[in-house]
């Protein structure tokens, strides 16, 4: 197994306000090339510390990818640290210098003297072209270890990695990954259902990741265990059935949007406790005007009556948070908008407004179409944002299941 | 200066799908206690690797905070790795064992044998109570170094840190941080305006962080430069004026919600291109039913006409994306809902639907109240999600400025 590690350089990544995210992109790409990331380090702009971290990484791993600290300021020290670790001098690369000068010339600016140091490359290393900025990258192979230095801005880093770094990268045994996404089930429940499958895996690996309102399952196998992976996927499909809403890293709204467009259907929504979040999710997808006709956020009883003609008597009799009101909201928004589907959501997002009979987290989700209206009653755990998300997730899932019947 | 580092343990944090975020919370808390984070490491579930990482950290830093790997499975190895690093045995802590057993008993479950290992504590260490889960934390002071082991789930980790770990933490020289948030201005523009201030700072530090649709400024100073910090804050206020929408880490919707509640005013919204996102932001705040009356997402022309009585002739004459339509939307939603304020947004979120005359990113935002209707025309850079965010940000800012007049 080829082992890699990622080092992110920059004191801003050691504040409470910025996390390193470049490493997620790099990990994905390294995995695709059969290389496993075994450690990540984040270090500040300190020459000795950076050099020390490189030396630790070179003892653990075969490939080291560093991001950040290649700018023109005195705080940018990654290239100096690499030279220090290698015990070699920095040398001016004239081709790179010309390219940097040219970049400035194109914008009619004289290159500041500070940028000259970006053309300094440790002796024996190769410069990697930066098509989106002034900082070139650096690649060197030493003692069988490959070291890559990339700029920090994701836009520059990703383009350089794809075009100029990957051709140098040693690649390992390819492995395959299959993703499954499941909505509205807890991690432990899914884990338990899959135990007959996961307990028999040999070479294939199983990972379950819990996100808000959904669970992601990853099955991973090296090339020579491809058969086992295929069998495992089939057996997972048999166990979970239509609980699986996607076999890729798609969101629920993407899946629903694809179904609506595929069947040429439209939807309109009437929301109370989700406060527009369902409409927002449905309109996150480019081209959503093809399937989304309208939405109303009827927070007050007056708005439920005026915009949806929900009778005040119905609200008085059952309460605004009730199955009959959710059903009426779904049916009314559908007929008023002439859409194929109407969704109604009413519930209590909290933290206030709950009672013993109708606690925070109680949500009714209704879906109406030409032939049937379905309503589901949920009791979600507290947390305003989570309740909004879970309620919209339940509504989208209801629509998905109806569209795939 | 007291130096700290954070070690996150868990192979899932080395996949392309999960980033460590616990460290941001911990960094903030450590900073508040005058301690600077100098490095972060993320390592997989490997006994020797974890022990090695602890030993490296103990050479660099005074305080080590580790998260994750305290569960009951064979993959959970942080406590074993600490014992290995310390060269001490693990010992059963009977009080902790009782607490774990009790947790299960409360749910009428017999404690699985696997959980017994969670009561094993390295000799000489102190167990830290976990009020939200089975995994206790661990604290030890050795050779003048403080080491904390905390569980991985944020909910368990944060509560344990606050209540049971902080009392042990050595604290350094306090420093003060003042935050300013500015909406709808670019990073470089703000940076340029502030140059007369930032170029004269002595002990105080200045950081500018760009987020979507807003910029955050941090001024930081040690206790003995408090005067300088106060002066810098005043001079920043003089330069930026009401462009500063918050002097804390509040969101724009929190600030607007506070103003609406303070003045006892209500708002309703009519959205087109933002697709419910503005309503969602306004209803993210607990108690939003006090100030949010209703919202409509009028995607189609028919819905603009039926829900808002926008005349078809007006749409034909000016186009749905136009100042007159935005104004009518704002005024109509205000009068139909009997709210104090009405907001209308119409624009082109893209990627399709743009033209030379009306390109993607063109957005009209209108705010109506009893005495005046204001409309603003924006041309945001492309990116559907960004355009939705920026448009809602512009609308909220318009309302904020009106409320603070």
Class based on secondary structure composition and strand pairing of chain A: alpha/beta
Number of domains of chain A: 3
Strand order, sheet with most strands of chain A? 2-1-3-8-7-6
Low-confidence stretches of chain A are none
The most extensive interface between chains reads: A-B, 74 and 74 residues
Question: Could you tell me the mean pLDDT of chain A?
Answer: 93
- The strand count of chain A comes to 17
How would you explain this protein's 3D organization?
The structure is a homodimer of 405-residue chains. By secondary structure, the first copy, chain A, is of the alpha/beta class. Chain A has three domains: 2-168, Molybdenum Cofactor Biosythetic Enzyme, Chain A, CATH 3.40.980.10; 175-246, Alpha-Beta Plaits (2-Layer Sandwich); 252-403, Alpha-Beta Complex (Maf protein). The first copy, chain A, has 14 helices and 17 strands. Chain A has helices at residues 22-32, 47-60, 78-86, 94-106, 154-165, 187-193, 195-198, 226-240, 252-263, 277-282, 301-308, 312-318, 323-337, 384-403; strands at 2-9, 35-43, 63-67, 90-92, 120-122, 126-128, 137-142, 145-150, 175-183, 205-211, 214-222, 244-246, 267-271, 292-298, 341-347, 362-368, 373-379. In chain A, the strands form four sheets. In chain A, strands 2-1-3-8-7-6 form a six-stranded mixed beta sheet, with helices on both faces. In chain A, strand 10 (205-211) and strand 11 (214-222) form a beta hairpin. The mean pLDDT of chain A is 93. Strand 2 of chain A pairs antiparallel with strand 2 of chain B.
């Amino acid at each position: 197994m080829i082992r890699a590690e990622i080092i992110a350089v920059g004191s801003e990544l050691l504040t409470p306000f910025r996390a390193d995210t470049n490493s997620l992109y790099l990990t994905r790409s390294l995995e695709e090339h059969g290389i496993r990331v075994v450690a990540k380090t984040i270090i500040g702009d300190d020459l000795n510390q950076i050099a020390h971290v490189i030396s630790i990484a070179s003892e653990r791993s075969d490939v080291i990818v560093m991001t950040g600290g290649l700018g023109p300021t005195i705080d940018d020290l990654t290239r100096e640290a690499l030279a220090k670790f290698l015990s070699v001098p920095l040398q001016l690369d004239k081709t790179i210098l010309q390219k940097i000068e040219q970049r400035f010339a194109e914008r009619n600016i004289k290159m500041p003297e500070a940028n000259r140091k970006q053309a300094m490359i440790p002796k024996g290393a190769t410069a990697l072209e930066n098509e989106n900025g002034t900082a070139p990258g650096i690649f060197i192979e030493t003692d069988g270890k490959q070291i890559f230095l990339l700029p920090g801005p994701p836009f520059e880093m990703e383009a350089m990695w794809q075009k100029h770094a990957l051709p140098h990268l040693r690649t390992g045994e390819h492995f395959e990954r299959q993703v499954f996404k499941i909505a509205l089930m807890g991690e432990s429940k899914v884990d338990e259902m899959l135990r007959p499958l996961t307990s028999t895996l040999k070479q294939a690996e199983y990972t379950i990741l819990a996100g808000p309102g959904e669970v992601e399952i990853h099955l991973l196998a090296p090339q020579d265990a491809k058969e086992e992976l295929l069998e495992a996927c089939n057996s997972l499909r048999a166990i979970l059935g239509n609980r699986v809403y996607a076999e890729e890293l798609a969101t629920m709204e993407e899946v629903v949007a694809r179904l609506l467009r595929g069947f040429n259907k439209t939807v309109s929504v009437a929301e109370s406790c989700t406060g527009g979040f369902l409409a927002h999710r449905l309109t996150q997808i480019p081209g959503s005007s093809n399937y989304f006709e309208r939405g109303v956020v009827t927070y007050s009883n007056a708005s439920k009556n005026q915009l949806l003609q929900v009778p005040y008597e119905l609200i008085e009799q059952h309460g605004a948070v009730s199955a009959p009101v959710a059903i009426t909201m779904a049916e009314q928004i559908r007929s008023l908008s002439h859409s194929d589907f109407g969704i109604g959501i009413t519930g209590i997002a909290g933290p206030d407004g709950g009672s013993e009979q109708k606690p925070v987290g109680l949500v009714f989700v209704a879906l109406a179409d030409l032939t049937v209206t379905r309503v589901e009653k949920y009791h979600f755990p507290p947390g305003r944002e989570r309740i909004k998300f879970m309620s919209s997730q339940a509504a989208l899932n209801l629509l998905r299941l109806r569209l795939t019947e």
